[in-house]
Each structure stands twice: as structure tokens, then as C-alpha cells.
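Quick review question:
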């Protein structure tokens, strides 16, 4: 069953990354109850750098919960947490933590149909230095690129509401470009 496990939002705030004060909204916190989904994202959520996050095509960021054990293992190996310390949903900077759908299942143009709104897949997330800082080690972005566990951005097809715990359908779009192909192409360009 495909399910929305968690909804997370954040306000933009300044944090110290490598000795610089940087504005970020990557530190998402769980919200309870219904959350309004508007054309530019979830009510109460911010994107600090609109050149790479936010806008109509990147209004909402979704991430598969199935990748969380991998990141927990990586953080544990780096000595950043105990083996039994769980990362809370939103730790990867995602608005929506999903279960039952991985990047390989998703194509650009597919629609996630929830009970009271619909979100269309637009592109994969690209890791950045803020992701490294949020995860606590400098190779997190490189690992995301190698593993392909990037999650994906969504545009708001039909505004409405979302609530953690609800199920959703994955409705096929044109099926021309899948998220793993698009992510691999973007990562290859960055590595040149």
C-alpha cells in the first residue's frame, strides 16, 4: 500500500555551515492534522533559495521512507548517532515522507492522487552542500548521487489538503523520462 507517513515544514533560518551564516529551510519538522496544499507548496513551509528549491515546479519535495535505514547506517558509521537512534521524518529535507514508492517507480508527469489533492512529479532532487550539513557529514551528497536515492519534486496539480497516514494512488503520466534516468543525467553533468 502506498501511504503518506509524514508531513514536514520549516521556516527559513540562518545556520552556520563551514563558517558561513546560510539561510536554509532544510530542517523540516513534523506537523499533525490536515495541511493545506497551495500552488506554491504546503502552508507554513518556506524555501530559502528559490534558485534551486520552490516555485511551481518544485513546490513540494517527496522522499521514500525506504531509504531511511541507509541514511541511519551512514550516520552511525560516521559516529554521528547511535545504531538505534532513528532519524525523524523530514531529516532529508522532505515535505512528504512516502511509503510504497521508490524513484524507480516514478516518471516525470506521473500524478500522486491523494484524497483531497493531486501532485504531479516534475524532477529529482539534486543534493547540495546544505544536505551535507543537515546529514552531518561531507559525503552525503555524493552518496545520494551514487545510490540514486534522491526523492522527487512535485507541482501542485490540484490544491487541497493532506494528512499523514492517508494512502495515495500513483497515476501514470506520459512515461517518457523516469526519475532515475533524469537524476543520472543531472549528476553526470555536475561531475564533468
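Suggested answer, residue by residue:
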Amino acid at each position: 500500500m502506498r501511504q503518506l507517513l509524514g508531513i514536514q515544514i520549516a521556516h527559513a533560518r540562518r545556520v552556520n555551515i563551514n563558517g558561513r551564516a546560510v539561510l536554509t529551510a532544510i530542517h523540516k519538522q513534523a506537523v499533525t492534522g490536515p495541511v493545506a496544499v497551495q500552488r506554491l507548496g504546503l502552508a507554513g513551509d518556506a524555501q530559502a533559495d528559490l534558485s534551486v528549491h520552490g516555485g511551481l515546479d518544485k513546490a513540494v519535495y517527496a522522499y521514500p521512507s525506504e531509504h531511511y535505514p541507509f541514511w541511519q547506517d551512514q550516520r552511525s558509521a560516521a559516529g554521528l548517532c547511535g545504531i538505534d537512534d532513528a532519524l525523524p521524518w523530514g531529516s532529508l529535507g522532505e515535505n512528504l515522507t512516502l511509503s510504497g514508492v521508490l524513484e524507480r517507480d516514478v516518471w516525470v508527469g506521473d500524478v500522486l492522487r491523494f484524497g483531497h489533492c493531486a501532485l504531479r512529479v516534475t524532477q529529482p532532487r539534486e543534493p547540495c552542500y546544505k544536505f551535507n550539513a543537515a546529514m552531518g557529514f561531507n559525503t552525503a551528497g555524493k552518496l545520494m548521487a551514487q545510490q540514486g536515492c534522491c526523492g522527487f519534486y512535485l507541482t501542485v496539480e490540484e490544491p487541497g489538503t493532506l494528512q499523514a497516514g492517508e494512502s495515495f494512488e500513483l497515476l501514470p503520466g506520459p512515461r517518457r523520462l523516469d526519475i532515475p534516468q533524469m537524476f543520472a543525467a543531472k549528476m553526470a553533468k555536475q561531475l564533468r
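Why it works: The chain is about 20% helix and 30% strand. The chain has a mean pLDDT of 93.
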